[in-house]
Amino acid sequence: MPLNVEPPTLSGPPPEPSSVDTPSPSSPGLSPDVPVESSPGVPGGAWANERSDGGSMRPLFVFLIAAAAALVGTIVFALVHAGNERDLEQLTDARADVVQAVDEGRTAQEGLAEQIAAAEQALAASKGKVTDDAVRAELAGHVAAAKKLGAIEAPPVPEAGADGLDAPEDIGALEARATEWAITMRTTSTALASATALVQASHLQWQEDRNDAEAKAQAAAEQAKKNAAQLKKAKTTLSSVTAQLKVSVRDSQYTLDWTKSAGAPEGVRKTLSTHRAEGQAALAASANPNSLGSVTELGQRREAARLAIESAAWNARATVADGSNGRLVQKKLCKVGVGPEGQNQYLRCDAAEDLKKVGAAFEAEFGKPLRVEYGYRPYDWQLQALDEFGAGQVAEPGTSNHGWGTAVDVPVDDGFRFGQPEYEWLAANGPKHGWVHPEWARAGGGREEPWHFEYTG
């Protein structure tokens, strides 16, 4: 609302003299007989005398009043103009603040498109793949709100002095609209960014949880596979130990009977009998076939029982050892391996040393060890073999070269059949170190045993 006050003009004809006459000396109230004193500072004497020619001061007064009025108008104009300048400056400054607020809001609005795209991408990637689906619903709501706001025009900002911003009281309303616009855009942008981050974090957590679950499942599967392999191995061991314990329990009865007839002390026989009973109890015990611990524990129990029986049997034999066939002292024998029943196999030490030389050459030739199934055969074992295979199939107890610790039986499954390379090699090279295949055991010899070799020194 501009103010436009024009100052008064001094141009034009001089003011007319006032029609009011100066009182004459004859006018009432003035005595012609009274002289009028001259006014001090006025040349020529008294005022009445000086103006007796009818002149007047009124035009001067009028001029002075008009000049004063013009001066006041000029001052008022200057003041009003200065006020207008200040108002315009205030409006301009206020408009700059409003423009800044609108620009900030517009910047946030322009960024919504990119944020909406990122949010929709997060929603698509996280469908069914978040730890809390509520965050996706919240983000979808923010996306919808942002799309609506993205189409809204920014509030107009008129120039200072134009309609809508031509008075100081317009500033407040304009600032309020601009501030509300900017805050709405910034708040929407911030809320959309925060909701997007929450969905992305939930999706990432879901992935981590899934990876953890998969890792745990894989570890569990691997552990189950490992447990299954261990269980299988434990069952295999249990089966082997069980078969060996059965042999030890069986053979120990021959040991008890023979050592009794040979005059062994009751104490050693009682110890062997006790261990034999423990072995039988171990054979009667059972295990949970699906429990590694249970199967392993039973296998260990049966192995311990077997070892106890074998040790007690050798102690009983030692009490009747006299150096004859089947009655050799164990301490004078040398170990050459373990038989299929888990029993230690021994030979006379010179025979064992030469067999070791043959074995080294055999392994160099075939890449596998020369194993021994049976070596020295105590008298009680000879009795058991006779019962198992019958007369004519084994030597009479007390006459077998096994009873002297100078014969071995090697595993048939290791290639010791007539015509196989291993048999042919050992038959040809064994004699270099005193080990021969006897005539009776050769093909056509009457008791063909391609696995049987004897030491001749």
Can you walk me through this structure?
A 3-stranded antiparallel sheet has the order 3-5-4. It has a two-stranded antiparallel sheet with strand order 1-2. Strand 1 and strand 2 (344-348) form a beta hairpin. It has helices at 47-50, 58-125, 134-150, 169-261, 266-284, 292-318, 349-366, 379-389, 421-429; strands spanning 333-338, 344-348, 407-409, 435-436, 452-455. The protein is built from 9 helices and 5 strands, in the order ααααααββααβαββ. The model is unreliable at 1-54 (pLDDT under 50). It is mainly alpha-helical. Helix 3 runs antiparallel to helix 4 and helix 4 runs parallel beside helix 6. The termini are far apart.
Task: Name some characteristics of this structure.
457 residues, mainly alpha, three-stranded antiparallel sheet, two-stranded antiparallel ribbon, 9 helices, 5 strands, rod-shaped, disordered N terminus
Summarize this entry quickly.
The protein is mostly helical. Helices cover 58% and strands 4% of the residues.
What structural category arises from helix and sheet content? mainly alpha
Helix content: 55-70%
Specify the biggest β-sheet: 3 strands, antiparallel
Measure the end-to-end span: 140 Å
Largest sheet strand order: 3-5-4
Order of helices and strands: HHHHHHEEHHEHEE
Write the layout of secondary structure elements.
Blueprint: H1 47-50, H2 58-125, H3 134-150, H4 169-261, H5 266-284, H6 292-318, E1 333-338, E2 344-348, H7 349-366, H8 379-389, E3 407-409, H9 421-429, E4 435-436, E5 452-455
Helix pairs in contact: 2-3, 2-4, 3-4, 4-5, 4-6, 4-8, 5-6
